[in-house]
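Holo prediction. Input below; ligand is NAP.
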Amino acid sequence: MNIIVTGASRGIGNALVRKLSADPAHHIIALARDAEKLDALAKACIKSNSEAHVHPIAFDLLTPDYSFSLIPKIVEVFDSIDVLVNNAGLLIKKDFAAFSDADFDALMNVNVKSVFKLTRTLLSFFARPSHIVNISSMGGMQGTAKFPGLSLYSAAKGAVSVLTEALAEELSDREIAVNCLAYGAVQTEMLAQAFPGYTAPLNPDKMAEFVAWFATNGHHFFNGKILPVSSSTP
Ligand SMILES: NC(=O)c1ccc[n+]([C@@H]2O[C@H](COP(=O)([O-])OP(=O)(O)OC[C@H]3O[C@@H](n4cnc5c(N)ncnc54)[C@H](OP(=O)(O)O)[C@@H]3O)[C@@H](O)[C@H]2O)c1
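Structure of the complex:
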């Protein structure tokens, strides 16, 4: 399968690329800003599986234009996409009153606008069938426990969740399934920075095991679904 994973330089995205690369049939584009970490990831994948196909693309999802700056790099690797995992994310934790306009823009741009822009830019490349997996958070689901300081992050993830449902409807005639995984706590740098001292029940490798299966198989079972993936928050 031809797979793109954003936010691959660290955390769950990084673990996901390593997990997917165990299968030599997968060609994986690993996208994030940090080129050194992506190169280290590609080397680590080859070390564990000499037939791994991991292609790092250093790209800032806040770049205004994707068509000229990103698409040529992607089509150098493959010209059709089976799976896109919109995993890159940003968490800023602050009291609501302390949030600046710039915080709002950063949270919405990385968590929501990049999902919109990347998906829109890549639309003509999706195979039939194919699968878009958007990554949300338990806080981005209606009726779940909410945490102080995460109001704007949760609102951004809520937008990702609902965008998933709406997009699945619009893309169904192209055989592109769109689903959303709303994670509970996973022990990554993002979580450690937001909740120092807290230990999550899952590590990135364990979560990546599930996500690797879901990204490559879930579209046969689900479409337009926001699925809670959490053993912590209700
Ligand atoms: N960890 C949790 O407990 C948890 C819970 C619920 C949901 N989530 C969600 O799960 C996803 C992965 O989380 P994580 O904990 O693994 O996060 P993380 O460790 O902070 O990793 C975030 C990734 O996003 C990339 N990224 C951020 N801004 C970017 C930009 N402008 N352009 C390109 N890439 C960018 C980062 O790479 P560069 O810095 O190299 O660009 C990094 O690889 C996120 O969407 C997060 O919101 C996580």
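The chain has one domain: 2-229. That is the main takeaway for now.
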